[in-house]
Write a structure and sequence with these properties.
Elements: H1 2-23, H2 32-61, H3 68-99, H4 103-128
Helix pairs in contact: 1-2, 2-4, 3-4
Length: about 130
């Protein structure tokens, strides 16, 4: 229950940071990576808020927070996200050669893309199902 509360709190803080990055007047003078990072932060924080709220609701009802099906979904999603993230990193390295951004900015964008791909793979696998049962 404590983890779920901190997940909701952390999600709210990330949401505020993402909204600030997207709607701040300083972002207009910044690069496209600031916009992409802000949008990815909003998506990640929305998913964190959803997960935290669903965990709190499950704990409130007395259900287990994580069961075997959810563990299988997370395992399959992490495997799929790893393979897609490798190609995203290759794309970022190619883009870095052409755009000459600072390495820290490319690393931040890459990590946020990895988290975004993981979230998308969880959503797709939950909709599509495991298909191995």
């Amino acid at each position: 229950m404590k983890r779920s509360f901190f997940l909701v709190l952390f999600g709210i803080l990330l949401l505020c940071d993402g909204i600030h990055m997207v709607f701040s007047p300083l972002v207009i003078r910044s690069s496209w990576t600031d916009w992409a990072q802000g949008i990815l932060l909003i998506i990640i924080s929305g998913f964190g808020l959803y997960q935290g709220a669903s965990n709190l609701w499950s704990a409130f009802k007395g259900d287990p927070i994580k069961d075997e099906l959810l563990k299988k979904i997370y395992r399959k999603a992490s495997s799929l996200a790893f393979h897609i993230s490798v190609w995203c990193w290759i794309g970022l390295m190619i883009a870095n050669r052409r755009l000459s951004k600072p390495p820290a900015e490319i690393m931040e964008t890459g990590i946020l893309i990895m988290i975004g791909v993981y979230i998308i793979s969880i959503v797709v696998i939950r909709i599509r199902g495991l298909r191995d049962e």
